[in-house]
Every structure is written in C-alpha cells, then in structure tokens.
Amino acid sequence: MKWAGIILFIITMISCKHVKQRDDELYSRHLQRKVKLTVIYTPIPADKSQLNLLILNDGQDIEKFRIREITDSLYKKGAIRPLVIVAVYAGDRMQEYGVADKPDYQGRGSRASYYDAFINDELYFYAKKEAGVRKFKSVAIAGCSLGGLSAFDIAWNHPEKIDKVGIFSGSFWWRDKAAEDSTYSDTNNRIMYAKLKASRKKPQLEYWFYAGGAEENSDRDKDGIIDVIDDTKDIISLIQRKNICPPEAIVYKEVKDAKHDYPYWSAVLPEFLVWAFGN
After folding, report:
1. Secondary structure (3-state) at 84
2. Is this structure's pTM higher than 0.85?
3. According to CATH, what is the number of the domain 17-277?
C-alpha cells in the first residue's frame, strides 16, 4: 500500500505538468450558430492572476499547427507562463474573416463584423468564466493567412481587451477593388491599410508579424518582392510612421524559403509563444 501510494503520487505529479486539451461548443447569438472550440491549457496556477489567454483563429487546423505539442514542450522547459488557448473553429471563413464592416471587392468578409462581435462579446467572457478569472494577465489573438488579417483587425478594434497580436502570413492584400482595375491603388484600396491610414487611434498593442519568402509568385508592383512581404512591411511602416506604438512593440520575422503552409507557420510558432508569453 505504501509503494502504491508513492507511485500514485508520482504519476499525479507528472500528469500535473502536462498541457491538457478538450473540445467544447458555444452558441453565438452574433453568428447565429454553434461555434466549436478546442481549449488547451497548461496547469492552472494557484495565483490565477498569472494566467494568460491566447485566442486562435482556424481552430480546425490546430493539429497541423501543432499548438498542443509546442505549448507542452515550452511549458515544461519553463519558457512560457501559464496559458489558456481557445482555438475557434471557422464557419464560413471567407465571410466571417476579414475586416469588420468592409467586405472585399468580391463581397467576401461580409460577416466579419459579426465574428468580431462574437470574439469581443461572447468568446472573451466564455474564456474568463472557464478559467475562473476576473482578468487575464495578458491576452493575445493570432491567426494565419486570412485568419491573421482577422486577428489583426479584431485586436485593433478591441485594445481594451487584447494586448498582443500574432499575424502569420496575414492577408493584407485584402482589397475593395480588383488589382487589375486601372484605378486600383495600394494606398487606397487595400482595406486594412486604408483603415489604419484613416484612423486616429493609437491602440496600446504589441505586434508580431511573420512572412515567408516562397509563399507566392504574385508581385503587383514588380519590385521583385512578393506581395505577402510587401503588404506586411507596408502595414508595419504605416504603424511606425504614425507613431502608433514604440519601435520595440513590433517584431517582424521573415523566413527566406518558407511557403504558405502550416509546417512553416508551426516552425516559428515557438518564437511567437515565447514572445507573447515568455518568462
């Protein structure tokens, strides 16, 4: 009995160090549908004021992103603080992701404002209730591709709730006019760029941007630099020119031969997590 008790104690102590995962569902009155969620969490600290939150777009792809394994590894190494991740499965992502209140030239992103409201009014409070906290130590939102554009827009709209944003290959090309249109302009027709340019806001956010050098062949301005890099750097330059945040609040990472796919995003995910939640 004595040895059995010791063995049980050891097993319990070991299991307490593991990151855990469970699935859930939340009905959204804004989206008028049930939203599937996966919740990943490190051991919850006794002092819950030290608990952090990451909201992740495209939760249906978390296995490709390897978020659980990477979080588990970093936490065991003591590289990140206690963390809850809520991964939100996309519905009609071409309509729910984008820039709130501004569809693109093909009418995509028409429900982005509803998704924004879901994150702000419903998911945020769900996460606090599930974690049993009144306030998280820090809150970040992240996404890849169109999910990255969505994450950036939501963070920009709600800096009172969100502190940091991670954009993996963000779709900053999102535009309200076809690039082939003779009146098209990068300055006026890229929706997120135009929104920032016209805004007087200076949200207290921290930004982590990533782009790969082999993601595409598109090069609208024929400068030899692919659009995903140009568009990302243009957003960064605009933020800097407008003095929206201190220079140290922006991180940009570019990987030369990286493609537009999860193995490449997953490879840099540890750097993002340590940047956002590092000890």
Report:
1. strand
2. yes
3. 3.40.50.1820
